[in-house]
Design a protein that fits this description.
The complex is a heterodimer of chains A (262) and B (223). Chain A has two domains: 2-122 and 217-254, D-Maltodextrin-Binding Protein, domain 2 (3-Layer(aba) Sandwich); 123-215, 3-Layer(aba) Sandwich (D-Maltodextrin-Binding Protein, domain 2), CATH 3.40.190.10. Chain A contains ten helices and 13 strands. Chain A has helices at 2-21, 28-35, 61-73, 87-92, 107-112, 152-160, 173-181, 192-200, 227-242, 245-254; strands at residues 37-43, 45-46, 50-52, 58-59, 76-82, 98-104, 114-120, 123-128, 144-148, 166-170, 187-191, 208-215, 218-222. Chain A has a five-stranded mixed β-sheet. In chain A, strands 10-9-11-8-12 form a five-stranded mixed β-sheet. The radius of gyration of chain A is 21 Å and the shape is elongated. Chain B is mainly alpha-helical. Chain B contains eight helices and no strands. Chain A binds chain B through residues 146, 149-150, 154, 168-171, 175, 178-179, 182-184, and chain B through 74, 77-79, 81-82, 86, 88-89, 166-169, 175, 178-179, 182-183.
Chain lengths: 262, 223
């Protein structure tokens, strides 16, 4: 409630400021409302966040998120497929209003664009079957863990794993997953997205998150100096978290509930 | 195009390289010895064995020679656990190399056996030797001697082919170079070093095979 009041006040303040300064610079939120379409950069080659479905239409977590935001803004959504390399240039050149493309936050990006609050979990962790008693890196003592060689989880796990844990480094995700599913290893260190992809196939062994290695959630990217749009976005995301609509998207695409700390 | 070589990582990774070298050598020695023994039995079975054995050995040889080594390895390591056969990556790699070399060497050795003049078999029989004794004392060693260079090449091919065991996280020489490459991003240097080590191994292995040939085929030893 307090948050909403704050948002209302912030929005009012902004509106007042905008009114005072006149139309010195365009307001992206006003432009979106006026044009009636929200242009969103989405991935098309990164399931489950964004891929092309059997009906040739884009589908995924990011696409559902874009639709949800457009709906709350009361406008139509226009999906613009992008690659991870060109998603920020698309935003900077105003070809799109928002980037919802499994975008992680880092200082370099923060210099050039703004970020909403987090809307999707994206993390690496150690996964193992439900009955495995692993709660922290120390519990890996005497166990065998599969990782994909050179991936973030390989580098991080190598630092934190106890000396008598055996890290088996496979060439690619397929080898890592096969090693886990065939029982050649006790646990697997990978991303929540990969784990979701495994669970989606209904394997005999379901990987369950045991502990976190690196957390890098996804944020909606927008241009700098758009406080009205940013406030509105954060309000929409906060509401979607509260009313469970975001959790529904997470369950659908990531096969796991939204983490409480997101 | 000036490239600045940087080998400063070698001391940090010497343990990985030496372990990789040891595993590649172990795989080659065990694979070579057991594989050639298996190959000899299969060659006998397919060329001179009882009629019921010939199709069995034939099926094994054709199955292995007509499928990729990597698939055989994956089948053993990733496939067999589904029916309850678990083994670690080293044992899986050893078994894959043995059955692979066994099949290829069986055909090479069979060629040597079948090139034996009929008179040799008859000579054995005329000395009241059983077929097995004839094979063991009259046929086998001259047969091996005939195809020894081809057999040596096959052992080297299997040694070089052992590079794919890094796919199942066996930490052989190829794993070591991939590991170093992904940690230091010095691809040129890492693979250059591995190339040199493999080349040295192959040259040494060929010399060793020639040396073994000189010892076990004394009759034609050249002074």
């Amino acid at each position: 409630m307090l948050r909403r009041q704050f948002i209302a006040i912030a929005a009012a303040t902004f509106a007042a400021t905008a009114a005072l300064t006149g139309a010195a610079h365009a307001d992206a939120l006003a432009d979106i409302t006026k044009s009636g379409t929200l242009k969103v950069a989405v991935p098309q080659d990164f399931p489950p966040f964004g891929s092309v479905g059997a009906d040739m239409a884009p589908q995924g977590y990011d696409i559902d998120m874009a639709k949800l935001i457009a709906e709350k803004l009361g406008v139509k959504v226009e999906l613009v497929p992008v690659t991870s390399a060109n998603r920020i240039p698309y935003l900077q050149t105003k070809k799109v209003d928002l980037v919802i493309s499994s975008l992680g936050k880092n200082p370099d990006r923060e210099k050039v664009i703004d970020f909403s609050s987090a809307y999707a979990p994206f993390y690496n962790g150690v996964f193992a079957p439900a009955d495995a008693a692993i709660k922290s890196a120390a519990d890996l003592s005497g166990k065998t863990i599969a990782v994909t060689r050179g991936a973030v989880e390989d580098l991080e796990l190598t630092k934190v794993a106890p000396a008598d844990a055996t890290i088996k480094r496979y060439e690619d995700n397929n080898g890592t997953i096969s090693a886990f599913l065939s029982g050649q290893v006790d646990a697997v260190a990978t991303g929540n997205v990969v784990a979701a992809a495994i669970i989606a196939k209904n394997p005999p062994k379901k990987p369950e998150m045991k502990f976190l290695i690196k957390n890098s959630p996804c944020f909606v990217g927008l241009n700098k100096d758009e406080p009205a749009l940013l406030e509105k976005l954060n309000a929409i995301i906060a509401e979607a978290k509260k009313d469970g609509s975001l959790n529904k998207i997470a369950e659908k695409w990531l096969k796991a509930p939204l983490p409480a700390d997101l | 195009m000036a490239y600045h070589f940087d080998f400063s990582w070698i001391p940090d990774y010497s343990g990985v390289i030496l372990k990789g070298l040891a595993i590649t050598v172990e795989l080659t020695v065990v694979g070579g010895l057991v594989g050639l023994t298996l190959g000899t039995f299969c060659a006998w079975g397919r060329a001179l064995g009882p009629n019921w054995l010939k199709p069995i050995v034939g099926a094994y040889v054709e199955l292995i020679r007509n499928t990729p080594f990597m698939i055989q390895l994956f089948f053993i390591f990733f496939g067999l656990p589904s029916i309850g056969v678990h083994m670690n990556e080293l044992l899986a790699a050893n078994i894959a190399m043995v059955i692979n070399l066994g099949a290829y060497s069986a055909e090479i050795i069979r060629a040597g056996i079948q090139a034996t003049p009929r008179g040799q078999f008859e000579a054995g029989a005329s000395l009241a030797m059983s077929p097995i004794q004839t094979f063991r004392h009259v046929i086998l060693f001259p047969s091996l001697q005939r195809i020894w260079p081809a057999l040596s090449s096959q052992v080297i091919i299997v040694m070089l082919g052992s590079a794919v065991v890094s796919q199942i996280a066996a930490e052989d020489l190829t794993f070591a170079s991939n590991f170093i490459q992904s940690r230091t991003f010095r691809a040129f240097e890492a693979y250059l070093l591995t190339t040199v080590v493999y080349l040295a191994l192959a040259v040494l292995l060929r010399a060793a095979m020639r040396g073994i040939g000189v010892i076990i085929f004394p009759r034609r030893r050249r002074a």
